[in-house]
Amino acid sequence: MKSLPPTYVKGFHDESLIKKMKYNVLGSTNLHVSQLALGTGGFSYFFGHYDAEECKLVVEEALKSGVNYIDTGPWYGHGVAEEILGKCLQAIPRKAFYIGTKVGRYEADPKLMFDFSAKKTRESVMTSLKRLGLDYIDVMQVHDVEFAPSLEIVLNETLPTLQEFVNEGKIGFIGVTGYPNSVLREVIERSPIKINTVLSYTRLTMIDQSLKEYLPFYKSKNLGIINASVHGMGLLTNGGPQSWHPASEKLKKICAEAAEFCKENNVELGKLALYFALQQNGPSTILSGTNCTPLLRLNLEVVQNGLNEKEMKIYKEVSNRFFAGLEETNWEGVELKRFKENTFSFENDSK
């Protein structure tokens, strides 16, 4: 008989659905996380329209269906996502979920967007606890470490400050996130503080499998690996990405052609992308953001039942026709270059 996860709460959860969900231990932590995790970047304007009441329904249905790990951060909507999530969690037993949030990335203003200092880190942790209405946060992650003016500040200020909160019992575990896995590896190798989790986004998808190169290293450090944004921040969906997406027009065009093919066959590309991620070994959980119940149910259907015969046929055809042998698979360096240019321009305009 399949055992129930530590987050199971009798009277709250649907036990039959809990038993359909797979759970993995998140690295060296004692957290048994669901194979599918809920991202809340969409609990703000970042990914288009959102409705706070619908977000509440998403959280409740996701948790009752076996999802037990929720990811958020002060960057999403510049505090809005954390605030909305906090309201969503008010009527939910604290035992029923693990939560990961972040420090380091904050405001839209390029001059205020990143701050990895010890002072700001302390303020951010306390603000997140207040917004979320919690006494402790399970996983606190340093957000997008590649944007730090120097990794020295992450190593000497951000991480030691988070360790202080671990010692106080306000944080359970410490993680890092970012786009270039080479930078994540450097931080992990050099860190004086024990790092428990690593969140890598859009790097183990139907179009980019570069995370595989780093999995042996992460596993050797007994890290809990979070495979985030397996839909390529919207690239691998029938709806397509937001206008701000940093991918090249060439890569966007290929993904749009794949989406159009899926639409012609009445298949959702997003289902195929999630199915691909579920087949990959290494990550403890797959982080997929959603702010509406239809999309949540679509994701849960893939987790619980896989693809049907028609979808599997289209999955193989899309993989071979559109994504096999891609010369360009990512946008590494694009956002960092854009940020530096915007910061330089902003500073000059302010003089």
List keywords for this structure.
351 residues; alpha/beta; TIM Barrel; 8-stranded parallel barrel; 42% helix; disordered C terminus; NAD(P)_OxRdtase_dom_sf; AKR; LGALDH-like; NADP-dependent oxidoreductase domain-containing protein
Annotate the secondary structure layout.
Layout: H1 15-18, E1 23-25, E2 32-34, E3 36-39, H2 52-64, E4 69-71, H3 80-88, E5 98-103, H4 118-132, E6 137-142, H5 151-168, E7 171-178, H6 181-190, E8 197-201, H7 215-220, E9 224-228, H8 249-264, H9 269-278, E10 285-289, H10 293-305, H11 309-323, H12 334-350
Parallel strand pairs: 3-4, 3-10, 4-5, 5-6, 6-7, 7-8, 8-9, 9-10
Antiparallel strand pairs: 1-2
Helix pairs in contact: 2-3, 3-4, 4-5, 8-11, 9-10
Q: Overview of this structure, please?
A:
This protein has 351 residues and is an alpha/beta fold. It has one domain (15-350): NADP-dependent oxidoreductase domain (TIM Barrel, Alpha-Beta Barrel), CATH 3.20.20. 42% of the residues lie in helices and 14% in strands. The strands form two sheets. The protein has an eight-stranded parallel beta barrel, surrounded by six helices. Helix 2 crosses helix 3 (80-88). It is globular and about 55 Å long.
Number of strands: 10
- CATH fold call: TIM Barrel
Instruction: Quickly count the domains.
Output: 1
Give the low-confidence spans: 344-351
User: Structural class of the secondary elements?
Assistant: alpha/beta
End-to-end separation in angstroms reads 68 Å
CATH architecture: Alpha-Beta Barrel
Shape category: globular
Overall pLDDT metric: 95
CATH C-level class? Alpha Beta
From N to C, what is the helix and strand string? HEEEHEHEHEHEHEHEHHEHHH
What would CATH call the homologous superfamily? NADP-dependent oxidoreductase domain
Major beta-sheet overview = 8 strands, parallel, barrel
The number of helical runs is 12
Helix content: 40-55%
Percentage beta strand:
5-15%
Alpha carbon gyration radius: 19 Å
Physical arrangement of strands within the biggest beta sheet:
3-4-5-6-7-8-9-10
Organism: Cryptolaemus montrouzieri
Protein name: NADP-dependent oxidoreductase domain-containing protein
Pfam families: Aldo_ket_red
